[in-house]
Amino acid sequence: xxxxxxxxxINDVPTNLIVHSFGDRIVxxxxxxxxxxxxxxxxxxxxxxxxxxxxxxxxxSPPTAISLTxxxxxxxxxxxxxxxxxxxxxxxxxxxxxxxxLNRRPVIVGLALKRTKAPMAHSDDDDFMVSENxxxxxxxxxxxxxxxxx
Length: 150
Description:
The chain is α+β, with helices and mostly antiparallel strands. It has one domain: 2-Layer Sandwich (Ribosomal Protein S5, domain 2). The chain contains two helices and six strands. It has a six-stranded mixed sheet with strand order 1-2-3-6-4-5, with helices on one face. Strand 1 (2-10) and strand 2 form a beta hairpin. The mean pLDDT is 87.
C-alpha cells in the first residue's frame, strides 16, 4: 500500500490531502476541517476508454459513464452536494489518468470542505452558481492532487 500526503494553505484555509493506494481501490481524502467528511465512491466500467490527459495545467475531463455512489455521510446542503460530486468526479478522473488505461480501480473520495457563501442569485434563477473563490479552491486542490500523483 502506497500513501502520499500533502498540506497547503488554499485561500487562507489549511487544506490536507492524503492518497492511499490499495490493491482493490484508491482512497483520496481532501479536508479543510481535520476530518474525513462524507465518502463518495467513483467507478467506471472497464469498457469505457479514458481520454488522454490534456497538457498541464488543464485537468482531464471526467468520463460521462462515471458512477458516483455516496458511502458515508452527506454534504451539508444541495449546493455542496453538487460541488462534492464535482470534486469526486474530477479527483477520480485524475487518479485514473495518472494510473493508466488498464487501472480502473474504484476511487473513494472523502470530502470535508469549509463552507463558503453561495453567490447571490436572482430569485427566478435556478441555475447553480459558483463563486470565484470556489473555482480557485477547486483548481488549487486538483493541482495539489496532480502533484501528489506525479
